[in-house]
Hints:
This protein is α+β, with helices and mostly antiparallel strands. It has helices at residues 40-51, 74-85, 104-113, 147-158, and strands spanning 7-9, 15-17, 26-31, 57-62, 125-128, 134-138. The chain has a single domain (3-128, 142-158), classed as Glutaredoxin, CATH 3.40.30.
Amino acid sequence: MSATDFTFTSIDGAPLPLKEFAGRPILVVNVASACGFTPQYAGLQELHQKMGPRGLVVLGVPSNDFGAQEPGSESEIKRFCETGYGVSFPMTAKQKVIGADAHPLYRWIADQLGEDAAPKWNFHKYLIGRDGELVDAWPSRVAPTAQPIVGAIESALAAR
Length: 160
């Protein structure tokens, strides 16, 4: 099993199978609109614009799991992201990302890396390689454009 075996629902309500992104690195980030880390949307959009044409997929996964900081509906979340940060990368419908009822991708991540690797807060980042396997993970405090993340993305893009 790999990350591309999972399917989300898009923020617009359509099926969003990760197999659509097979062969491309995917940066999966659980996001929230009312968090101290919310300005990281700008960095995620920057990665999408700069590295998307080279193959990177940035995938935002709205979640209300931490501090109830994503209380809005999908349409409210989408509007906030587009108007506030110009977000044009794919977003899923709101998901649980921790615990037994977390989205299956997040349960798979916890199985792969251990429960300690589950998100501890909003804007936790996971990089999935071209092969659908987990490459690395970073906590909320590591900005999307920080060198450890950009370097790992560059390596994943270079891998064939």
